[in-house]
Amino acid sequence: MSKRAIVTFSACFVSAMAMAVPAMAEFGYECENQVIRNVHSTGGPEIGGILRDNKIHINWYYRGGCMDFYQIRWGVAGRGEQEFQIQGGDCTSGCGYSLDIDRDKPYVVRVEACRSRFLAPSRCSNWSIPAVTLPYGHNTCMDGYVWREAFPGDMVCVTPGARAMAAIDNMLAPSRRNPLGGAYGPDTCLLGYVWREAVPTDHVCVVPQTRQSTADDNRLFLYRRVVGGVVKFPFSWIS
User: Fold this and answer.
1) Which pLDDT tens digit goes with each residue over 150-166?
2) Secondary-structure percent of the chain, ordered helix, strand, coil, rounded to 5
3) With helix as H, strand as E and coil as C, how does 112-179 read?
């Protein structure tokens, strides 16, 4: 996946080629003459950003002074993350970077600030609090799940197969009702079928296994959504 750097603030210019580590002297940064705070005494960078077209435009602030490089860790929520370095600098007033994405998927992004040390491991800040893109607000499903849509407004996250089955059950519903009615009036199902009950008023007739799987999906829906923090809707972040 290609990446393209942007200049978000004049105080900082960051650049990287896909997954490559640029030379530290590429843009002539010299941090030696600036005050460097103990990176372990500071929190991680403060991160935010927006979605525009098919890109995440992230920006972050770090009050720890000029740093040799920044680590960016990102990926589709629930699918693992990849990590790469970009050129360092002073991000007290803000730095920015762009990532190419599929805008319909939720992404997690975090940043840490690091100082290189001669013949010793780098010293890095804490990771920033993760920023998560929510293209559909609180109803954004984790990658691999979709809205069930068993009825208008049904945003329970299920597998694509479960959504397809809900659509088929809706289409076949009239043929599964008892034309003579019964104990439940016109909603009485033929023998062998039961109400789906995606919600209490959902009287679509399905096989018992489907009613059970529907109940399971209702119980698991919170674990299949990307959640956390305060949502700025649409196309922004939670943190």
Assistant:
1) 999 999 999 999 999 99
2) 20, 30, 50
3) EEEEEECCEEEEECCCCCCEEECCCHHHCECCCCEECCCCCCCCCEECHHHHHHHHHHHHHHHHHECC
3-state secondary structure of 204: coil
Rg (CA), the chain: 25
Q: Are strands 237-238 and 157-158 parallel, antiparallel or unpaired?
A: unpaired
Which CATH architecture does the domain made up of 3-133 adopt?
Answer: Sandwich (2.60)
Strand order of the sheet with strand 46-52? 3-4, 95-100, 55-61, 46-52
How far is the C-alpha of 177 from the C-alpha of 132, rounded, in Å?
Answer: 45
Rounded-to-integer distance, Cα 76 and Cα 20, Å: 20
178-191 pLDDT, tens digit per residue, is 999 899 999 999 99
Which residues does the chain have with pLDDT short of 70?
1-42, 227-239
Contacts of 114 (CB under 8 A, 6+ apart): 39, 67, 68, 69, 70, 71, 88, 122, 123, 124, 125
Task: Please give the pLDDT value at position 227.
Answer: 66
Per-residue pLDDT, 23: 28
Extents of the domains making up the chain:
3-133, 139-224
3-class secondary structure, 18: coil
Please report the sign of the dihedral spanned by the C-alpha atoms of residue 139, residue 143, residue 148, residue 152: positive
Q: Tell me which residue has tokens 């600030």.
A: 113
